[in-house]
């Protein structure tokens, strides 16, 4: 099986970001229906030693659009401290990220596959090919944080299921 770098990266990001938009919408609808302040969810955690919901959303953005930008620039770094966005602002951030990723062309992204990227964190560097970075670092982190955001909503009682996480399947047309 052969797939393009675009299909392995941007297409996967877009599918999960769209699904995230969907479960964020369901989370907000649930909050309105149950008279829950959505800002309570923003700081909610799966466990006390884990980052809150807002961090999970920031990480989804960073490990998708931020990863592509890092691969283009040849260096990827942690995003640094982010503002404490509201639930509505987090929803807008995911939508904005999706819109920006849609603008990349397959040709532009496929050209990145064999280039190198350096991951810099806390004074250390790790050298990757973009393909190795995508498959062994970016995508696993992206899915981890998307899953954790989903789990926080589900744990709060939002009626979402696996289909909400998977999003629109890329069916044969």
Topology (SSEs and partners):
Elements: H1 5-34, H2 38-42, H3 53-62, H4 65-73, E1 75-76, H5 87-102, H6 106-110, E2 116-121, E3 124-129, H7 130-155, H8 162-166
Parallel strand pairs: 1-2
Antiparallel strand pairs: 2-3
Helix pairs in contact: 1-5, 1-7, 3-5, 3-7
Number of domains: 1
Main β-sheet description: 3 strands, mixed
Spatially, the strands of the biggest sheet line up as 1-2-3
Q: What is the SS-derived class?
A: mainly alpha
Radius of gyration: 16 Å
Please state the second-level CATH architecture. Answer: Up-down Bundle
Short overview:
It contains 8 helices and 3 strands, in the order ααααβααββαα. It is mainly alpha-helical. The chain has one domain (10-166): Up-down Bundle (Four Helix Bundle (Hemerythrin (Met), subunit A)), CATH 1.20.120.450.
Can you tell me about this structure?
By secondary structure, this protein is mainly α. It has one domain (10-166): Four Helix Bundle (Hemerythrin (Met), subunit A). The chain has eight helices and three strands, in the order ααααβααββαα. It has a three-stranded mixed β-sheet with strand order 1-2-3. The radius of gyration is 16 Å and the shape is globular. It starts with a helix and ends in a 7-residue tail after the last helix. The model has no long low-confidence stretch (mean pLDDT 96).
Which descriptors would you attach to this protein?
8% strand, Four Helix Bundle (Hemerythrin (Met), subunit A), mainly alpha, 3-stranded mixed sheet, 173 residues, globular
């Amino acid at each position: 099986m052969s797939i393009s770098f675009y299909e392995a990266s941007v297409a996967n990001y877009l599918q999960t970001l769209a699904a995230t938009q969907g479960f964020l919408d369901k989370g907000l609808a649930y909050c309105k229906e149950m008279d829950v302040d959505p800002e309570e969810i923003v700081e909610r955690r799966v466990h006390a030693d884990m980052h809150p919901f807002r961090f999970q959303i920031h990480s989804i953005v960073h490990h998708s659009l931020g990863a592509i930008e890092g691969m283009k620039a040849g260096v990827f770094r942690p995003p640094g401290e982010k503002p404490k966005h509201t639930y509505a602002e987090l929803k807008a951030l995911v939508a904005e990220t999706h819109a920006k990723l849609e603008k990349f062309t397959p040709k532009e992204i496929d050209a990145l596959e064999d280039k190198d990227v350096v991951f810099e964190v806390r004074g250390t560097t790790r050298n990757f090919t973009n393909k190795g970075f995508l498959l062994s670092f970016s995508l696993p982190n992206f899915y981890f944080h998307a899953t954790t955001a989903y789990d926080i909503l589900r744990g709060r009682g939002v009626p979402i299921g696996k289909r909400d996480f998977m999003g629109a399947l890329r069916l044969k047309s």
